[in-house]
Amino acid sequence: KAGVTQTPRYLIKTRGQQVTLSCSPISGHRSVSWYQQTPGQGLQFLFEYFSETQRNKGNFPGRFSGRQFSNSRSEMNVSTLELGDSALYLCASSLSPPGQSLNYGYTFGSGTRLTVV
Amino acid sequence: AQKVTQAQTEISVVEKEDVTLDCVYETRDTTYYLFWYKQPPSGELVFLIRRNSFDEQNEISGRYSWNFQKSTSSFNFTITASQVVDSAVYFCALSGSNQGGKLIFGQGTELSVKP
């Protein structure tokens, strides 16, 4: 059974550019969450999607956005990149809707490491 | 507000030693969930355990054990007879019943097990 797949694994972008990261959840999983991990701030929740709808959002500026497709695959986009956006971006999927997903837990992918120069 | 504190930033032990990773949490929710994840150098977060706030039973899984005490808001993790393969960063996380699937993570404890 394939796990959560995130592409690309590594990415280098220039300040001011935009970037799109992709996440394919485990087959059958319908909830997808995104987290940002940095040495200074640790792991921080970005947003969560279920059935193509954003169900929960963290405290990040509007430059960070996401979406979910009908096949549950998700993308997140960061526009006007800043040096501080350099981070490991982790995606997680769950079998259940956000209100029930804690009963099943989340499976995380290996992440996309974004470097902004 | 919800908060998770892992006071130990780094721990170094010699193989076969027992080691306990501390986790203290804060929440006003009466129903909540606590988690432990392991992050090896490859980056993915590997799920270890989930505990809900109504289940204070301690749990043992092989060399791993967890001690949940609501009275002290702690959810500590012990590795018995540590091995080099246990070297990783370990995260404790919390989610309230009204938070959807949002996890609040501690800062992590980097465990180094030396041969």
Kindly summarize this structure in a few lines.
The complex is a heterodimer of chains A (117) and B (115). Chain A is an all-beta fold and 117 residues long. Chain A is built from no helices and eleven strands.
How would you portray this structure in words?
The complex is a heterodimer of chains A (about 120) and B (about 120). Chain A is globular and about 40 Å long. In chain A, the strands form two sheets. In chain A, strands 2, 4, 5, 6, 9, 10 and 11 form a seven-stranded mixed sheet that branches. A four-stranded antiparallel sheet of chain A has the order 1-3-8-7, with no helix packed on it. In chain A, strand 5 and strand 6 (about 55) form a beta hairpin. With about 120 residues, chain A is mostly beta strands. Helices cover about 0% and strands about 50% of the residues of chain A. By secondary structure, chain B is mainly beta. Chain B has no helices and twelve strands. In chain B, a hairpin with a 4-residue loop joins strand 8 and strand 9. Chain B starts with a strand and ends with a strand. The interface of A and B includes residues 98 and 109 of A.
List the helices and strands and how they pair.
The complex is a heterodimer of chains A (117) and B (115).
Chain A (H helix, E strand, L loop, with lengths): L4 E3 L2 E4 L5 E6 L6 E8 L3 E9 L2 E5 L6 E5 L5 E5 L8 E8 L12 E2 L3 E5 L1
Chain B lengths: L2 E3 L4 E5 L4 E3 L2 E3 L5 E8 L6 E7 L6 E3 L2 E6 L4 E6 L8 E9 L7 E2 L3 E6 L1
Mean pLDDT across residues of chain A: 92
Structural class assignment of chain B: mainly beta
Question: Major beta sheet of chain B, specifics?
Answer: 6 strands, mixed
Q: Kindly, what is the distance between the CA atoms of the first and last residues of chain A, rounded to a whole number of angstroms?
A: 37 Å
